[in-house]
Design brief:
The protein is mostly helical and 151 residues long. The protein has one domain (9-149). Helix content is 55%, strand content 12%. It has helices at 18-31, 36-39, 41-48, 84-93, 99-112, 117-149, and strands at residues 9-17, 75-83. Strands 1-2 form a two-stranded antiparallel sheet. The longest helix has 33 residues, at 117-149. The relative contact order is 0.17.
């Protein structure tokens, strides 16, 4: 792709858990061995992103006893070029999920046709991490305000 054709394109960096990538590979190897997933991953992702699910279609499950996501788990970094309008559409439709989680959800839906409970737990745990970070920021802001006010 030439640099002129990338003018209207932006980079998406995806961080895919190694176990998730392996799960996709094994499934597609068995059921669709000529998938673009193996030959042109970027094209596979771009095609998958054409089918953005509606917000109501994004399942959320309650917390489970055994967390499967860890910030220490190995991740595979993939870079994909998409149109600016497509990225904006993803951002508008991602709801409460991070952009990365939303894209992983779309890829899951494209590969498996539905999400599994294990995958939903992963998304919920990512959401919990984001909420905890936001709570810390809010408490820090409250503390800073209290210091300025003199409380």
């Amino acid at each position: 792709m030439s640099s002129t054709s990338r003018k209207n394109q932006v980079r998406l960096k995806l961080y895919i858990p190694e176990s998730k990538f392996r799960e996709w590979s094994e499934y597609l190897e068995e059921y669709n061995p000529i998938s673009d997933f193996f030959f042109n991953f970027s094209l596979f992702v771009r095609k998958s992103l054409l089918n953005i699910p509606e917000e109501e279609a994004i399942p959320i499950f309650t917390h489970q006893k055994y967390p499967i996501n860890s910030s220490k788990s190995k991740k595979i970094e993939k870079t994909v070029w998409v149109s600016k309008t497509q990225k904006l559409a993803l951002i508008q439709n991602k709801g409460i999920l991070s952009l990365n989680s939303f894209i992983l959800l779309i890829l899951d839906l494209n590969i498996f046709g539905k999400t599994t409970e294990k995958q939903n737990i992963f998304y919920v745990l990512q959401l919990r991490e984001r909420i905890e970070k936001l709570e810390k920021r809010v408490y820090n802001l409250i503390d800073q305000l209290n210091v300025k006010i003199g409380n």
